[in-house]
């Protein structure tokens, strides 16, 4: 009996539009996050879900990361710290 493939649902999609300096065409880059929720096996075990982050340009996927929940938690904390540091530095610059 083969393992059933994980089912993913889209949770976030960010799009960035810009003008290509060389061709003067409008281009798009994007990032998408999908989540696969935890599931219980027929034997009663609970398997962790996964987070998939895909990065692309126009309609093409340029890269994709499949993260465990632990890895996604570390990424979340790193982004949160970076944003907090940014805002502290910005406030200090405004005070000058």
Structural class: alpha+beta
**Spatial strand order of the main sheet:** 1-2-5-6
Instruction: Name the helicity range.
Output: 25-40%
What percentage of the residues does DSSP assign to strands (E)? Answer: 35-45%
Quick one: overall form?
A: flat
**SSE string:** EEEEEEH
Q: What is the rounded distance between the termini?
A: 66 Å
* Tally of helical runs: 1
Low-confidence stretches: none
Number of strands: 6
What does the radius of gyration come to? Answer: 19 Å
The whole-number mean of residue pLDDT values reads 92
Question: Would you spell out the secondary-structure blueprint of this structure?
Answer:
Blueprint: E1 9-19, E2 26-36, E3 39-40, E4 46-47, E5 50-57, E6 60-67, H1 69-95
Antiparallel strand pairs: 1-2, 2-5, 3-4, 5-6
Tell me what the structure shows.
- With 96 residues, this protein is an alpha+beta fold.
- The relative contact order is 0.13.
- Helices cover 28% and strands 44% of the residues.
- The model has no long low-confidence stretch (mean pLDDT 92).
- It is built from one helix and six strands; from the N terminus they run E-E-E-E-E-E-H.
- A four-stranded antiparallel sheet has the order 1-2-5-6. A two-stranded antiparallel ribbon has the order 3-4.
- Strand 1 (9-19) and strand 2 form a beta hairpin.
- It has one helix at residues 69-95, and strands at 9-19, 26-36, 39-40, 46-47, 50-57, 60-67.
């Amino acid at each position: 009996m083969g393992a059933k493939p994980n089912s993913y649902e889209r949770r976030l999609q960010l799009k960035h539009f810009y003008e290509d300096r060389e061709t003067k065409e409008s281009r798009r880059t994007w990032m998408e996050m999908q989540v696969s929720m935890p599931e219980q096996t027929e034997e009663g075990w609970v398997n962790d879900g996964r987070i998939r982050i895909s990065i692309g340009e126009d309609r093409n996927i340029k890269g994709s990361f499949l993260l465990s929940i632990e890895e996604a938690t570390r990424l979340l904390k790193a982004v949160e710290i970076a944003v907090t540091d940014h805002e502290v530095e910005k406030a200090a610059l405004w005070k000058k």
